[in-house]
Structures are given as structure tokens and as C-alpha cells.
Amino acid sequence: MPGFRSPNPGLRAPRPLAFGADPAGARMARIRRSPHFADGVFQNPGGPARTRPSGSASKFAGLYLDREARSRRAPAGDIPVHPTTVADLARPPATGLRLTWAGHSSVLAEIDGRRVLFDPVWGERCSPFAFAGPKRLHPVPLPLAALGPVDVVVISHDHYDHLDLPTIKALARTDTLFAVPLGVGAHLEHWGVPADRLRELDWHEETEVGGLTLTATPARHFCGRGLRNTQHTLWASWVVAGPDHRVYHSGDTGYFDGFRDIGAAHGPFDATMIQVGAYAEFWPDIHMTPEEGLRAHLDLQGGATAGVLLPIHWGTFNLAPHPWAEPGEWMKDAAEEAGQAVAFPRPGEPFEPAGELPAEPWWRAVSAPVERAWAVHAATAPRQGDLDLAGER
Predict the structure, then answer these.
(1) Which of 192, 266, 272, 318 would bridge 172 by S-S if both were Cys, CB 3.0 to 4.6 A apart?
(2) How far is it, in rounded angstroms, from Cα 252 to Cα 392?
(3) What is the pTM of this model?
(4) 258 near 265, Cβ under 8 Å?
(5) Are the C-beta atoms of 351 and 85 separated by less than 8 Å?
(6) Which tens digit of pLDDT belongs to each residue from 113-131?
């Protein structure tokens, strides 16, 4: 099997290319100097985070094996993908800011005359193997080349559903720059991205690209691609600020108090792209529920219902035991209760946060009814992690 030592000590099975490369040399020396690296690994803000499923193994297995629950984790029909055209993206945004959600966490942000592509995943599976692993639930809205020129590709961390080998190899053939968290550059160089096109940042470091300031900001998550997870690559959220607009991309993260600090230092934001899918009671520290995602947005905006929230990290891959459409329904309820503007574009549907927002709950046409198990007053309700802890007392 790939990644395992051969019975013959003189032979070693080849390491899959998708595993990437571990940081070494000067890159590893820089990692060791990071204030966020201690005891041989990167550390999370707010203390250790559980990165493995916790709780009852039998309950975890039961959720995944239950036939009815399993059927609700996928759409009941074809997801309505917007047929994005070159013409859609060739016309500059009238307001100076336009977002196009391509599915999962992939977003093209056209901001103040520049084009920023977050966590592009155009591959069929978020997996190191073409024959196994979570498969796309909808096709990509348009070919990668049809996006047109991209000034900078921003990567939040090195998990397969955010850092996709075939997509990166295709983008490596262009002249785009890549902004990545500390250590992630080792993967990209291994896949053919020249070192001079990499901007590799620790938390709170920034870089300039065409008049935009990109800042790597903290997140509460983890990293790793191969069989041996060394925790030597950082994970990050990102702030992109132009002369007239500011946006925030959460990457993957659990809820933590640091959103307030990020908002105070870099906000308020015209739009936030917030992870609200693939949550579960088994890993409350590293992914947010829609209620927590709304709370994060409000923290980022200094407590105000300002800007536009774009829910991401849902709808494209089946990565958790919750119903496929639950993130959309829960976020819709939570946002309406709080009075917060939220955009619900179909995959591939461009919109301008300062213009008319896509608001139709398009998922309902291809989803079984979703049981509303969440709290009514979502914006002020206790977080799931708080409820878990209360139950343990």
C-alpha cells in the first residue's frame, strides 16, 4: 500500500504525490521560530483543540450507518448549479466587489480591480486517490480556465478539501501568486509552483499583491495530508483589504474569542465567507455550526449586524453526519432571527454584496425536509461546545 514500508528493507513504496512534502531546511527553521509553534507542533489559539472524534464510538458509527440518516446526507436530486459564463466574470463589478461561490470553500473575490481565489478545489474527490474518498455532489460551475486571470490564490490549510493537487497543478501553469500559511509552501513547491510565486505567512503577517493587503489571521483547526501528521504546517483564516473594500475568509475553524480581535484589528468587513458545514458534536473544537458561524460574523463586525455573510464549506461534499441541507436551513433561521444579511447563491452564481443578494433557499427543491433541532434564538443561544461542557458537569 502507498505510504507503507516494503517488507524488503531495501525497497520503499512510493509516496503518493498528493501527500505533498514535509517542510525542511530553511522553511522548517522558520517554523521553529514561530511564536505559535511549541513542543514540536503548531498550537491552537485558546488552548488544545480536539482533532479526533470524541464521545461514544458506537453512537458515531450508528449515525454513519443508519440508512435514513445516510440518505439525508446527500441531495435527493441534481443540485441547481448556476451556469457561470466567461461573460459573467468579464464585466467588472459595478460596486467594486463581487463574490462567486464555486462550492464548498472555493470563492472568487473580485475586489477593487483585483481577483482573489480562495481554496480552489476543482477535483472530483477531496482525497489523495482518484478512486476513493468524498466525491463531489455537484459539478464545478465552470472550468478553472474560464475564471480568467487570477492575481492571487489564497489557501487556508492543507486538508484535501481545501488544497487540491490537480487544481494547484493547473494554476501552477499560470503566473498567479499563492498566499499560504507557514509550511504549506512545501506542498506547492513539490507540485511545481516556483518559490518566487509563494507568499508564505505566519499569523498576523501580511503581504501586498497589486494594491491589496493580505493578512493571515488565526483559526482553530489542524493540518495534515499524509499517513504521518506532523502538524508542521499552519492553518489560517485570511483578511483581504483593498483601497475601498475588505473581506474575510474563515477557512476551517472552531468558534473562539479571537474573532473579536480579528474584527477589531482589520474590520469591519463588506463580506465574510464563513465555514458553517461539516460540523458534528464529535469535533466541536474545529468546525462551526451555522449558529457559531453567525456569532463569528457578528464578532468580526464588532457586534453589529453589518456586511454580508456568505456561508461556505457546505453543499459540495458529504463530510459529516448532519443532513445535507441543514447548514442552509439553520443559517437562514439564525440570520433572520438576528437580522443579519446572508447570501445564498447557487454554486457558481456571482453576486455583489452591495447589490441584490441571492436569497432563495434553492436547496429545498432537492432536499428532504430538515428537522429544526436548533435553538430559536440562535444569535444569543449557547454554543454547541458550551452545551457539551454543561452536559459533562
Answers:
(1) 192
(2) 26
(3) 0.91
(4) no
(5) no
(6) 999 999 999 999 999 998 9
